[in-house]
Amino acid sequence: MRKYTTLALLSAGLLTAFHPALPPTDALKAEALQDLQAHYAEYQQVAQRIWGFAEMGYKEAKSSALLQETLRKNGFTVQAGVADIPTAFVATYGSGKPVIGILAEYDALPGLAQQAVAEKSPIAGQNAGHGCGHNLFGTASVAAGIEIKKLLKEGKLHGTVKVYGCPAEEGGSGKVYLVRAGLFEGVDAVVHWHPGSENATMVGKYIANSSAKFRFHGVAAHAAAAPERGRSALDGVEAMDNMVNMMREHVPQETRIHYVITNGGKAPNVVPHFAEVYYYVRHPNRADVQAVFDRVVKAAEGAALGTGTTMDYEIIGGTHDLLINETLAHALQRNLEQVGGVSYTAEEVAFGKKIQESLGVPAPPVAQAAEVAPYTLRDLGGSSDVGDVSYVVPTVGLLAATWIPGTPAHSWQAVACSGKEIGSKGMMVAAKTITLTAIDLFSDAELVAKAKAELKQKVGSYVYKPLLGDRKPALNYRD
Questions:
Q1: What are the Peptidase M20 dimerisation domain coordinates in residue numbering (predicted)?
Q2: What's the whole-number mean pLDDT along residues 291-311?
């Protein structure tokens, strides 16, 4: 990356004049760390309440309301229902520049209801669980926002902090609608995090993603007495799936295609008149995602033609790949190393070893949660709507060890850890690191200017355009 001098940044209009008379950042950081820890029990309770709510994407009414209430009680002005999403919000405190955003998530995953114990034990009557730890995610981000607000109120920092309530990250592309609605305009930098099984700066790529529900319509008939009169919508789904599976050999090797049949009919002796399949297409390059997705659509059209059915499809989500801002990432790495990792009690170590045994594969030492990984470029594997944010504002994130080392996301083991103090301890690593990084951003105009220059260089001539087009938020995509 090119080096930018302060003079050059000023000349280019990228360096904003921040307030010159601020206390030393080391003193502010020490104060913030102490205050966050003093409120640990309060934030732990918020996280556990959201863990119990376990609300899926765009249905997070109680979770969103709790976080909004927490922010309002601490002096934030909250704008609810933004971007045509009832559970999205923007909480703001302060005025002027810089404007620093913090992302908060709070949606759960279907089919992962699990008690906070070290063996598989679903919660009766509950459909979802926090297998990605978003109960911790939203709470830590709110905690960091409140800590920055305190420093702003005391005049120790100057500017504006915004906490973004971001629903439906799990497949609903919630942040894409916030970006599309212009809610990040004028923001100078954004900080986020994600639960995980290690402590690390997020310097890797989330891959681009396009998703849709394909719906086939046929003709019902008695499957034994009059099968010739029927046209099976399920045949359309299965024909599509067969064609897509054959297509896997003939797409770029980094492509990932997943699907679930969400409706295959109601009874074997009735020719299904309706069937639905839900597809994800992923690739590191957003253009390749679109090209492969277009081929999946052609497979669906061919399947309908061959089975005598009709087909329509609904775009559910679409996310960009993640742009890494190394200027900000190096700053966050220093703060993460200052905060350090997670220490476990003997009881938690014993719990962790049981979790690892249940995985059935070799796992790192439980004590690895106390370490901070070195700054390393890595493959993050999945997709996230934070990618769209990273194309319009300098963005940086971290992983924090909220799960026992070796625990995969989207597992009952992750749900169990997210409901224990093991998860809450990792949550505070994230809250503290976000806070320290935000203090740097409020205090160092040149850091922000360099981050903006790096983003401008990486985006180049590309003009951001949402992959999900102009559709309204898919508020019922989990139905």
A1: 211-303
A2: 98
